[in-house]
Amino acid sequence: MTVYLVRRLIQALFVVLAMSLIVFVGVYAIGDPVEILISPDADQIERERAVKALGLDLPLWEQYLVFLGNAVQGNLGRSFVFNEPALKLILQRMPATLELAFGATFLALLVGLPLGLYAGLRPNAQASKTIMAGSILGFSLPTFWVGLMLIMVFAVQLGWLPSTGRGETCSVLGFVGITSCSSGMQWSFLTWDGLAHMTMPTVNLALFKISLVIRLTRAGVRETMLMDYVKFARAKGLSPARVTFVHVFKNIMIPVVTVVGLELGSTIAFSVVTESVFAWPGMGKLIIDSINVLDRPVIVAYLMIIVLMFITINLVVDLTYSMLDPRVRLENKGT
Amino acid sequence: MKANVGRRLAVAATVAVTGLALSAAQVTAQTATMAVGAPVTSLDPHYHQLSPNNAVADTIFERLVNTDNRARMVPGLATEWRVVEPTVWEFKLRPNVRFHNGNAFTAEDVAFTLARLPNVPNSPSSFAAYSRPIARVEIVDPLTIRFHTTAPYPLLPLDMTNVRIIDKETAENATTDDFNALRAAVGTGSYRAVSHRNGDRIEFERFDPYWGERAPFQRVNYRMITNDAARTAALLAGDVDLIDQVPTSDLTNLRRNAGVRLYETVGLRLVFLGLDFMRAANENSPFITDNDGKPLGRNPLQDVRVRQALSMAIDRRAIVERIMEGAAVPANQFLPEGVFGYVANLAAATYDPDGAKRLLTEAGYPNGFRITLNGPNDRYINDSRIIQAIGQMWTRIGVRTAVEAQPWTTFVGRAGRQEYSAFLIGWGSNPDGSHPLRNIMATVNRDRGWGSSNRGRYSNPQVDALLLQSLGEMDEAKREQQVIEGMRVAMTDVGVIPLHIQTNIWAARRGFEFTARNDELTRAQDLRPAAR
After folding, report:
1. Distance from A93 to chain B by nearest Cα, in Å?
2. How far apart are CA A53 and CA A33, in angstroms?
3. Which residue from A40, A43, A166 is facing B129, i.e. has the nearest CB?
4. Which helix (H) or strand (E) holds A211?
5. Which one of A108, A167, B332, B345 counts the least CB within 10 Å of its CB?
6. pTM of this prediction?
């Protein structure tokens, strides 16, 4: 187990390093941040000052070494645009994105698993066919359009929910009354107003995932139901509930866990469309805005964090496998 | 593309139902919410020279010389200013002005502010240029300040319209972070900032001891909604009371909506075509070939007749009406009428394809040539569609045009390296003809700081001479004549091909009124409850 973890960690380090180099060079190749950030009437003297101020006067390899040196000390650079540490900017926006991503994933499992299970157990029922048809819609409707439709119906027409933005927020400690609401990491699921603002973007993000979970679950159930051990369990006279929820359910969870894990990662990293439609101040919007102005420190820091996150999620997924299926032994994989 | 379709569908359907939603919503006179399309990156008024930042800075802070909604200079924190000697300007400061923390506003604050301009660490685009002409600041008394310049400098009051005054005591050692965290965001404006979430929203509260007109609302929420469709939807849903940068595709529907009113004014941003003047008449321009795709051996753009022909081939009215949905005015120069330096009797840019063909024949291109027109696709309103239209118009007179649009991030660097033959770009002017003249039409000159955005490398000694004269001319009437003359020469010589000046458009819900500004700034103090 330890050997396995250490190996994974070293791998992770290399991936992060490679990533930072690729992004660093990539952003450099796109264009010159100074051209974009500087006021167009700035004269030559001002341009030279700005280039120097942003550390862009050094050759690229030197800029990269400076960056690496700082990164080792936990400093991923200051944003060209905001003049704040890139890491701080990203962490400030992280709660907003995390709560959307986790909310959507939770919703996907909450709705998708039961529906998928039902559709798998009763493939010929009318309700199952409806569920499956619905899941196709969930797959194929573009997020952008669904988002706008949600706004139109629930905010503009019915006026039930606020159209955009993040509502009131509160810190966890503030919620339980230890500190004030406005200090610490800000979460909106702790206030009613925040929840109201969260509803539409979460549903919008969840729609695709719900469909995915439904389909995966259904396929798994259909396949597993025909397995010998299920037949045997039935023959032994176990109750249908026990057969379904212990024998079948546990076995279909492996693909579901893999996919949901990856989906969670990509939602956290790239829920750009939903965040911009709902003006949700999360990380996705930050990265798009940063790319548009070539704010290299933020782009590099962001992608490094994302790589780390994906590596962590994969690790958690692997660990979950071994819990779900005793046949998967991590030590064997590691050696 | 998908985004566009989605937006249209959404808007089409929304407009049908909004009348109801809007009339149902109650207007509370004490709080207003406005949504802007471009993110504000900092509350430090001297950190980044950027319109969205300037708009917010203008709400919290004030300038010695203000500009009104028509970009005319009006007294701000200075009540009057005059030339004492050719190299000395004197500003009389407004008495009884208080900062948000109660401190009195004095000449010390002005001197401190000017000293800070070149010393804002990490600034990607500083305000240093506005203090550079000033050799020495002399405080005559707490309410009188003199600026000594090395040479006569007529533009000093105009420069002062770009400098927001901060409180010396608060900001003595303040960093940009301190401004963002509101500790140092202490100005003299009619609103003060009470909360700031970077890139998301700023909240303002009325500053009661303000010296001038009382702020109309107790609180203003200033939100950033960068997505066009979402911004319009937020207005229609009644979540926000005002939006800026109304997308042109929504204009027709919003105009018909009784619950919404549009506030429009012609702006100061010209969209134009830059041309390659870098290659001499006997050199090849990178994106021009003969009709068989072979090098031409000369740069046709060096011939004024070719440039005139290309300008005459463009149907500006069609572009404005069909592509811009009326949200622009056809232009023959940089500034709109009424602004200092507007050339009144300059021939209008008329559409004349036959005349254009004749000129091409005269210039020795009876069968035209091939050219690629480059441009950004995410920068100016409808930019990529405009160059497509121009491509067709040019092809019609025999100049077979290919069109290439790309993201601003890659486009602007290449344009700056003179890699294009013809390209679309825009310019937001300060309200003074010398500003575009100096930055775009003047020969690039490092020592003078000229031609900073002269990406085509246009150079005309006559223009340079007139500009140089005007920059040392302390008599405003004479100076304006020189600027007008310089602009006339540059435009007659077709140094750039002007297309149109964009209209700035805001949309407010019924019950609110907004003062549209031609400098594009969306400021909290310009939003009021409608008079009943």
Report:
1. 9
2. 12
3. A43
4. helix A192-225
5. B345
6. 0.84
* Sequential DSSP letters for A69-90: HHHHTT---B-TTT-SBHHHHH
The secondary structure of residue A68, as a DSSP letter, is H
Does residue A318 or residue B327 have the better pLDDT? B327
Pairwise CA distance, residues A16 & A193, whole Å: 38
Look-up of token digits 């909310």: A103
The span from the CA of A330 to the CA of A87, in Å, is: 33
> Can you tell me the distance from the alpha carbon of A82 to that of B53, in angstroms, rounded to the nearest whole number?
11
- The residues with which B507 forms a beta bridge, in sequence order, are B243, B262
Whole-Å CA distances, A313 to A87, A283, B292:
20, 18, 57
For A283, nearest residue in chain B (alpha carbons): B199
Contact A25, A8 (CB under 8 A): no
Distance CA A320, CA B127 (A): 56
CB A132 within 8 A of CB A236: no
For A91-95, A247-251, B413-417, which range has the lowest pLDDT when averaged over its residues? A247-251
Question: Which chain B positions have a beta carbon within 8 Å of A152's beta carbon?
Answer: 10, 13-14, 233
Could you tell me what percentage of chain A is helix, strand and coil, using 3-state DSSP and rounding each to the nearest 5?
A: 75, 0, 25
B427 neighbors B270 (Cβ within 8 angstroms): yes
Chain A CB within 8 Å of residue B14 CB: yes
Q: Is A37 on the interface with B (CB under 8 A)?
A: yes
Would an 8 Å CB–CB cutoff place A177 in contact with chain B? Answer: no
Place of tokens 């005002």: B242
- Spatial distance between the Cα atoms of B329 and A126, rounded to a whole number of angstroms: 60
Residue B351 amino acid letter: Y
Q: Do A33 and B124 touch (CB under 8 A)?
A: yes
What is the per-residue pLDDT across A200-222, written as a single tens digit (0 to 9) for each? 899 988 888 899 899 988 888 88
- The CA-based dihedral angle spanning residues B33, B34, B40, B42, taken in that order and rounded to the nearest 10 degrees: -40
Instruction: Determine the Cα–Cα distance for residues B319 and B323; give it in Å rounded to an integer.
Output: 5
DSSP one-letter code for B94: P
Mean pLDDT by 10 residues, chain B (532 residues): 44 43 48 92 91 94 93 93 94 95 94 93 88 93 95 93 94 90 93 90 94 93 90 90 92 92 94 95 92 90 95 95 92 92 90 94 93 93 94 95 92 90 93 92 90 92 94 92 95 95 94 93 93 70
Quick check: helix, strand or coil at residue B246? coil
Best residue in B41, B221, B334, B379 for a mutation probing chain A (most A CBs within 10 Å): B41
Work out how many CB contacts closer than 8 A connect A with B.
Answer: 188
**Would you call B426 helix, strand, or coil by DSSP?**
strand
Using DSSP's 3-state secondary structure scheme, residue A44 falls into helix
Task: Give bridge partners of residue B85 from the DSSP assignment.
Answer: B88
Residue B344 burial class via C-beta count within 10 angstroms: exposed 0-12, middle 13-18, buried 19 and up: exposed
- Report the residue of chain B nearest A163, measured CA to CA: B234
Distance CA A290, CA A302 (A): 10
Q: Is B199 on the interface with A (CB under 8 A)?
A: yes
Conformational region of residue A328, where left means phi above 0, alpha means psi within -120 to 50, and beta covers everything else: beta
Nearest to B375 by CA among B401, B403, B351: B403
Beta-bridge mates of residue B328: B502
Min Cα–Cα distance to chain B from A57, Å:
13
